[in-house]
Write a structure and sequence with these properties.
By secondary structure, the chain is of the alpha/beta class. Helix content is about 40%, strand content about 20%. Helix 1 links the parallel strand 1 and strand 2. Bound molecules: 4'-phosphopantetheine (PNS). 4'-phosphopantetheine (PNS) binds next to strand 1 and helix 4.
Length: about 160
């Protein structure tokens, strides 16, 4: 069975993330979407909330599971027997950071390949931080996050961020 991991902080999951995961699910037997710590970011949503939003957004994908992990991505990938890490790329601005992580992960474990999947054109500008900012100004976010979670994400951000 060929397993790939789709890692990220997903704070919160956006339609851009879901698009990358849906397309990845067509290429692998199983995809594990893994919520990890990004030490350079302070997340707005708790790990449990981010996992819950992902599960609700991805329930239509039968070969996709959601998990969270506190350690290194390559250690998790190794533990579950994954052969690939899939990262979405939007513009060239993502590239340097993603390339650095891919090379570091390859140094740590040469058996796990990082694959970059380009974003769909309509999601090029989309990011979790943009969603959080719009919601904190009471602007609609339903075009940017999956419909299953739009109301809860908006409610949570407008209450907490004021
Ligand atoms: O969505 P993000 O914040 O760009 O995702 C970055 C993430 C969480 C995938 C990255 O920070 C990560 O892999 N964190 C886990 C710890 C780890 O493995 N660090 C080494 C990366 S080279």
């Amino acid at each position: 069975m060929r397993i790939a991991v789709c890692p990220g902080s997903f704070d919160p999951v956006t339609c851009g993330h879901v698009d990358i995961i849906e397309r990845s699910a067509l290429l692998f037997d199983k995809i594990i979407v893994i919520v990890l710590q990004n030490k350079s970011k302070h997340c707005t949503f708790s790990t449990a909330e981010r996992v819950d939003f992902l599960k609700r957004s991805l329930k239509h994908l039968k070969n996709v599971e959601v998990d969270s992990y506190d350690g290194l991505l390559v250690d998790y990938a190794n533990e579950i027997g994954a052969c690939a890490i899939i990262k979405g790329l939007r513009a060239v601005t993502d590239f340097e950071y993603e390339f650095q992580m891919a090379l570091t992960n390859r140094t740590l474990n040469q058996n796990i390949e990082t694959l970059f999947m380009n974003t769909s054109a309509e999601n090029m500008y989309l990011s979790s931080s943009l969603v959080r900012e719009l919601a904190s100004f009471d602007k609609p976010i339903d075009r940017f996050v999956p419909e299953e979670i739009a109301v809860d994400v908006a409610k949570r951000l407008t209450v907490k961020e004021k």
